[in-house]
Structures are given as C-alpha cells and as structure tokens.
Amino acid sequence: MDHSGPTREGGELALALTVNGEARRLTLPPNVTLLEVLRDRLGLTGTKKGCDHGQCGACTVRVDGQAMNACLRLAVMCEGQEVTTVEGLASEVGLHPVQRAFLEHDAYQCGFCTPGQMMSASALLEDERIGSDDAAVREAMSGNICRCGAYKNILEAIHTAREELASQRKEGGIS
Amino acid sequence: MRSFAFTPAESVGQAVSAQGGDGDAAYIAGGTTLIDLVKLDVMRPARMVGVNRLPLNDVERLDDGRLRVGALVTNTELAHHPLVTAHFPLLSQAILAGASTQLRNMATTGGNIMQRTRCPYFRDAAAACNKREPGSGCDALDGINRMHAILGTSEHCIAAHPSDMCVALAALGATLTLVGPHGAREIAFGDFHRLPEDRPDREHEIEPGELITHVTLDSPVEGAGAHYLKLRDRASYEFALASAGAMIAVEKGVIREARLALGGVGTRPWHAQEAEQALRGQPPETVNFEKAAGIALRDASARQHNAFKIPLARQAIVRALEKATQAATDS
Ligand SMILES: Cc1cc2nc3c(=O)[nH]c(=O)nc-3n(C[C@H](O)[C@H](O)[C@H](O)COP(=O)(O)OP(=O)(O)OC[C@H]3O[C@@H](n4cnc5c(N)ncnc54)[C@H](O)[C@@H]3O)c2cc1C
Ligand code: SF4
Ligand code: FES
Ligand code: FES
C-alpha cells in the first residue's frame, strides 16, 4: 500500500507539510482543521477564526498557492502541501507589495479581516484568469467579508499592489 | 467538531474498499459541505475516506465531442478550463456565480453534485426536519421559508437544491459514472437527484459506498448561445433566490434547440423540459420566452414567505433566454 498519505497511529495521524517555507511534522487527530493547527499548534495566530463555516474568509490561507478557507479544511488532507499564511507573506526584502499597499491606503479599520483579505489579494494578483477591473476584483474578493466596510480602500490597495508588482517584474525584481 | 476516523485513499479501488458500503462512513473531497455540516452536528460520519488525492483530475474531450470530467476537478479548474469556456460557457458561468474564490478552489465536481441543502432548519440540529431526521416533521413548512423551493415540493420537505453548477449540468445534459462495491455503472444526471416526496432524506440515486468518478457532458450544441442568470440578496457569495440557465441555438430565424434549467426554486436542479419543447421551432422572441416561463412555472406552489419567487423566476427565465439568444449565432 502507498504510504505517501498520513498513516494511522492509534486515533492520531502523522502529518508532514510545509508552512511558510518550513517543514513541519505533527501528530494529530483527524478532526482538527488546518486553521486549528496553524493557530493552536504552530502559534501562527495571524490567521483568524471568524465564522468557522466558510462564510467570512477571515481564515484564508494559501495552499499550494491557492486561496482556501482553513476552517473547512481537515489538516490531515494537507499532507505534503505547502501552506502560506499572512506570517509568510513578507520576505527578507521586506513587506509584500500587498501589505505595503494596505498600509498606504488604510485598507482596514479593526484589522480582523485583514490577514484573510491580504492572502486572497496576493493570490488574485498572481491569477491571470481573473480580470483587473473593479468588477472582476470585487467578485474575486467577495469571499472576504469586512465587518468594518473597508472595501473601497481594499480595492484601491489591490490596484496599487498590482502596479507595484508589474513594475517590479519589469525591473526583474521578483518573478 | 465530533471525532471520526480518517483513511486516506490513493486509488479508486482503495477508496471504495475502505468505504465498504458502510452507511456510517463518508467520502471527503473538498470538505466544504461535509466539514461545515459535521461542525453543526448535522452529518455524523464515524469514518471519513479521503478521496482528495485520487487521480480523477482530468478534463478530456472524447471522440464523440462529449467532455469527460474527473470527480476531483475543482470548481475553479473546471470553470476556467479552456474546453469548458470554449464549448460549455453555461457551465463556466454557473460555477463562477457560486460560492467564493476560496470555496471554489476547494470544492470538487463530485462534491458539488452531492452538496446538501442550505435550509436553516436542516442545518439546526434542534429543529424538526424530515431530511435530517426522517419522520420528525418539517419546521420550514410554517417557518421562515423565504429561501425555499416552489417546484417539486412535498408536504414532507420544501428545501431548495442549492447548487449553481448542477443547474448548468441539468440544462446541458450529462452522465455520471459511479463505482461501488458491486462495480461501475452510469446514470443520467437528470435521474440522479430525487424529488423529496415522502423520503426527503434520500436525496440521490446512489447506493451505499458508491463513488462518483466522472461526469461526462453531452456533446455541445453547435452555434448555441448561453446565459446563466443568478438573482440573490447580494451581488456575490450568496445562494440563488432564483436562477436560470439558458441555451439557445437559432437557425433561419427560429429556435433550433433550447435548453432551460432553474436554480433556487426547485427541490432538485430543475430541468424545464416542457418549456424547452415549447420553444423549439418558434422565433426567439420575448413573447415566446414569456410563454416558456409560464410553462416552466405552471406547477409552482409557494408558502407564506416565498411567493415572490414565482415572478422572480419568471423574469430570470425571460432575461436568461434573451441573453442566450443575443449570444447565439444565427446559422
Ligand atoms: C459559505 C458557502 C457558500 C456557498 N455558496 C454556494 C453557491 O452560491 N452556489 C453553489 O452552488 N454552492 C455553494 N456552496 C456549496 C459548495 O459549492 C459545496 O460545498 C461544494 O461544491 C461541495 O464540494 P466538496 O468537494 O467540498 O464536497 P465535500 O464536502 O467533500 O462532500 C460533500 C458530500 O459529497 C460526498 N462526496 C464528495 N465527493 C464525492 C464523490 N466523488 N462521490 C460520492 N460522494 C462524494 C461527501 O461524502 C459529502 O456527503 C457554498 C458553500 C459554502 C460553505
Ligand atoms: S424543508 Fe426539508 S430540509 Fe428544511 S426542515 Fe423541512 S424537511 Fe428539513
Ligand atoms: S473562519 Fe473560515 S470562512 Fe469564516
Ligand atoms: S477591518 Fe474590521 S473587519 Fe475588516
């Protein structure tokens, strides 16, 4: 039998995944979500729990590059996958253009939705299938609810980040 | 969340044997329906079989023009697949009208077909619900039933089928391939979802342990225009109050082929076959679209809070047919 997936150890399962570039090995029961692993096991509390039912986007992380709701994903299903949280968005060079643009445009009030908004935004800006006009960006971002209603500034921040990413690409900065 | 055992599967055979036809075991694909409902204590599997790693990720065009889609293809991949956007735009539009970017990235083709209703009483373990707890009654009948169905209802259940993708599949025509403990079989998509009648808990023509492995779309209608119109309480990330998926092919000024299915109003993905029949051979004009809408909604019956869905669905049908006609090329 192929054992590339998590294997049984009593009631618990072994899990190996990469979080923000770091290899992690854990043993955990199957009913633990990726969100719980990040916050409670790995201390990465930047990712928020809002509704816990896929309805708000506060828990958005990137799994193998794709934005997903960590609250609805069983951790054991992330075997071998690469997870990026808001803590992994910045690099040695500094903040991610999305983070800088959020600061510049004041794209938050309380900040609770912000990590999820930024993870969705960073994924959206790398997805060529999604248009860059207001309507397309709003639609692609609609899985992230903002209780404070910072939508207008979030939209502007995303446009600014897109421009910065494009000019960085021109200069051969980041690919 | 309650506890359960988990077995990851790497092949279809391994998944089916791990499931074993056990009513207490559930396949888990994207998990966006299942984990939600386990947290609410509405679904209570003792075991889950992880199928997310099965090699069912291909979208391929068969020699006869049909499109074979693996059950694990995500909603995002399917909606953006070049063969889908080119030949089945209705499917692409319908998927993108559903849920959110994050959820579509997780949700799978098979899971979407199997998703459960959003009826709030079904989702509340303390409410009476014949679907969740057969024989317990239905709190929606005299409750807040604004989101509920107007077509295909019974005195036992009026829950609306929530899927947008399935509306497109109903209109386009498709075949499901199932593999179970007793081998493989095929079933027409239109026969897969059951009416609630007196057994709303039995939602699908699926046997214990059967796994959907593929969905094969009928070959595309040449020259057809398509439009999916979804009407809802907010512009995005919300289930349909009423939706219409329409496809129209026009030849020499008359409708050669028409397809129509509805969402948000039926207890299952609602294929309006009689309305389609009435459209064929007629000029693609609003008066005929209105007649078709009347036929599609002839048997609609509303409860206290959802009568507005009848005119809403009528308008959705007419508008979707008009838009589909505009997108069609007269040949
Ligand atoms: C907040 C929210 C909003 C949403 N909005 C919309 C919307 O607007 N429109 C819409 O259409 N949908 C919407 N959805 C529903 C979403 O599309 C479904 O949850 C999703 O498609 C289910 O797919 P999955 O792979 O995650 O299924 P899972 O949760 O993995 O499985 C669902 C069910 O199907 C069974 N199953 C899964 N795969 C198979 C298979 N291959 N064979 C047999 N059985 C299988 C499972 O055992 C389970 O019972 C929304 C969901 C949420 C949480
Ligand atoms: S409408 Fe159906 S799902 Fe909703 S409470 Fe009644 S029986 Fe349950
Ligand atoms: S906490 Fe996951 S979507 Fe709200
Ligand atoms: S900034 Fe408060 S929820 Fe968005």
UniProtKB/TrEMBL annotation, chain A:
Keyword Iron-sulfur listed: yes
Annotated Gene3D superfamilies: 3.10.20.30, [2Fe-2S]-binding domain
CDD domains referenced in this protein's UniProt entry, alphabetically: fer2
Alphabetically ordered keywords of this record: 2Fe-2S, Iron, Iron-sulfur, Metal-binding, Oxidoreductase
PROSITE patterns with a match to the protein in the record: 2FE2S_FER_1, 2FE2S_FER_2
Residues annotated as domain 2Fe-2S ferredoxin-type: 13-89
Alphabetical list of SUPFAM superfamilies matching this protein: 2Fe-2S ferredoxin-like, CO dehydrogenase ISP C-domain like
GO molecular function, one term: metal ion binding
Matching InterPro entries: 2Fe-2S-bd, 2Fe-2S-bd_dom_sf, 2Fe-2S_ferredoxin-like_sf, 2Fe-2S_ferredoxin-type, 2Fe2S_fd_BS, Aldehyde_Oxdr_Iron-Sulfur, Beta-grasp_dom_sf
Listed Pfam families: Fer2, Fer2_2
Name the UniProt record assigns to this protein: Xanthine dehydrogenase YagT iron-sulfur-binding subunit
UniProtKB/TrEMBL annotation, chain B:
Gene3D superfamilies: 3.30.465.10, CO dehydrogenase flavoprotein, C-terminal domain (3.30.390.50), Uridine Diphospho-n-acetylenolpyruvylglucosamine Reductase, domain 2 (3.30.43.10)
Protein name: Xanthine dehydrogenase YagS FAD-binding subunit
GO MF annotation, one: FAD binding
InterPro entries: CO_DH_flav_C, CO_DH_flav_C_dom_sf, Diverse_Substr_Oxidored, FAD-bd_PCMH, FAD-bd_PCMH-like_sf, FAD-bd_PCMH_sub1, FAD-bd_PCMH_sub2, Mopterin_DH_FAD-bd
FAD-binding PCMH-type domain residues: 1-222
Database matches in PANTHER family: OXIDOREDUCTASE, XANTHINE DEHYDROGENASE SUBUNIT C-RELATED
Keyword Flavoprotein assigned: yes
Keyword flag Flavoprotein: yes
One Pfam family, short name: FAD_binding_5
Entry keywords, A to Z: FAD, Flavoprotein
